[in-house]
Design brief:
This protein is of the alpha+beta class. The chain folds into 2 domains: 64 residues; 89 residues, no CATH class. It contains 5 helices and 6 strands; from the N terminus they run H-H-H-H-E-E-E-E-E-H-E. A 6-stranded antiparallel sheet has the order 4-3-2-1-5-6. The longest helix is centred in the N-terminal third of the chain and has 40 residues. The protein is flat and about 70 Å long. It starts with a helix and ends with a strand.
């Protein structure tokens, strides 16, 4: 009986959590942008879902605006000001780094999935930094990169400075690599349609 309940919970929980998260995002966007619509054009023109639609349109046009160098310069100026404010800069930099880490347009080694051999035990990690010019001289060197090794089934991990010669690049998207590690390589949680190539040593 207990095993059946546990099996049902494991089957339902991921879908339920995903639905709850999507509903929460929907409600937040609808609440913020829906109120703006009602305020400016009146409640008679509002219908449920219009707030989310407006949010998507705004995000799309913001993306278009960033094609112009004037907007990019204004954003960079504003970003530099934000990065000088205590506490706020810590949160902002963390979010920015996280978004950059998952960016599919990142062509550098940063964000790549790698294997590192520790005395016969291979750990899966993610390159988070290639240069250490802005850090103290004794923290990282030219032949090293920073690699983050997350723990399985929990939030946490550790960061190590690893020699580039010890890295073995894994042909796997970052999102799938994280899922592979977080779920302790559980086969049922790591089904994918991509075809991996043979791992090779990074230069």
């Amino acid at each position: 009986m207990g095993k059946i309940l546990l099996r049902g919970l494991l089957a339902v929980a991921p879908l339920a959590i995903t639905i709850v998260l999507l509903v929460w995002i929907y409600n937040e966007l609808e609440s913020i942008f829906g109120k703006a619509i009602i305020y400016f054009i009146g409640p008679e023109y509002y219908f449920p879902g219009l707030g989310v639609l407006l949010a998507l349109v705004c995000i799309f046009f913001i993306g278009l605006l960033f094609n112009y160098w004037i907007i990019q310069n204004l954003y960079n100026w504003f970003e530099n000001k934000i990065k000088k404010i205590p506490l706020i800069k810590t949160i902002y930099n963390s979010v920015t780094d996280l978004m950059s880490f998952f960016s599919s347009g990142n062509k550098k080694a940063e964000g790549s999935v790698v294997k590192v051999d520790f005395g016969g035990v291979e750990l899966i990690g993610f390159v988070t930094r290639e240069t250490f010019n802005d850090l103290p001289k004794n923290l990282g060197s030219e032949d090293q990169v920073a690699v983050f090794f997350p723990f399985s089934y929990q939030i946490g991990g550790f960061t190590a400075m690893v020699s580039k010669s010890r890295l073995i690049k894994v042909d796997m998207p970052v999102e799938q690599g994280i899922r592979f590690v977080i779920t302790a390589a559980n086969p049922s949680a790591n089904k994918s349609s991509y075809t991996p190539s043979k791992p090779k040593k990074s230069n």
